[in-house]
Amino acid sequence: MADDLRDWFRLWLTPGVGPVVGGKLIHHFGTPAAALAAPYSELRAVGVPEETARAIVGQASEAAVERQLAALERSGGCVLTLADTAYPALLRAIPDPPLLLFVRGNLADAVAQPCLAIVGSRSCSTYGRNAANRLARDLASRGVTIVSGLARGIDTAAHEAALDAGGRTIAVLGTGLDDTYPRENAKLADRIAETGALVTEFPFEKPPAPQNFPYRNRVIAGLCLGVLVVEAAEQSGSLITARLALEQGREVFAVPGNITSGKSIGTNRLIQDGAKLVMDWQDVVAEFSYDLRQRLRTGQPAATPQESHLPFDLGEDEQCILALVGFDQPVYVDGLIVQSGLGQPRTMAALLNLTLRGLLRELPGKCYVRAWNG
Hints:
Blueprint: H1 3-12, H2 19-29, H3 32-37, H4 40-46, H5 50-58, H6 62-75, E1 78-81, H7 89-92, E2 100-105, H8 107-112, E3 115-119, H9 126-140, E4 145-148, H10 154-164, E5 169-172, H11 186-195, E6 197-200, H12 212-222, E7 226-229, H13 238-247, E8 251-254, H14 265-272, E9 276-277, H15 281-285, H16 290-298, H17 316-324, E10 331-332, H18 333-340, H19 344-356, E11 360-363, E12 367-370
Parallel strand pairs: 3-4, 3-7, 4-5, 5-6, 7-8, 8-9
Antiparallel strand pairs: 1-2, 2-6, 10-12, 11-12
Domain Smf/DprA SLOG: 79-288
Protein name: DNA protecting protein DprA
Pfam families: DNA_processg_A, WHD_DprA
């Protein structure tokens, strides 16, 4: 096991080092090893809280690191660090991406397709289940990866429909990778991992708990171009996912429901507040880029960063910037400067080179998207 990965685990397991503090440390110091070696005074100067800075200097229990690594090996899964090139680009672009992402299955192929979250009530109506089933089936059969949370109700319907359509689906867990919640979805989880992926940011042996699910929901939204809420009561947790999607700059869609049903108050309010009303799969695809709309409507495979034929002579700066820019979610220059850590002159030079090569398109407002190749 590489020392670099152990350092990621040491930093991740340090009390107080969550996604926000961890991201700040990686941005400032560059690597977990440098952050772990930093003196208390420098950690405090970066804005790390006092107790967390003391914990970093003291470092995480080596036994705890070994337990997690051993559990990872037993699970048959893998772990992606925030620095890995295979880490999903859309997720990396959110304000607080997980430092570590545990994966069972084939995440690379799943995120190589456009991803859409389908979420909603655990105690859904027959109408809600049928709507989730139809929309997930129609989208998955056209090459859209369906992302959800493996919960009862709408989540389960969306996952199952995507699989039955021969498509891919990603389940984002609110537990460690060694647990399945709810237990009755264990076989479904195995099916998902065959062609899609199970992902979580939680450590092994982490049981389900109410406080876990807002964290899970931000990952669901972060992996996707948009979030479709199929059915939700006024206080539904799926509305948290919709709010997080808005904060991340992603699209929000909602299926209209019966105005006399309490199960539809949340979705109907979302539409009142400006969410895109969805009656069929084309209402979702209409919000994607022109190129992606055409590919999905004609049944062509969606071009992806992984499939694009890139020139072999790209410099390190260009490769770094290219990994941060997706096909459908525009990324602003200021965000690229921060996320890449290259500074303004190098970032601007890389953007110019990539634009001239036809690999990026500049949009109004100083933002960029990937250009389709072929």
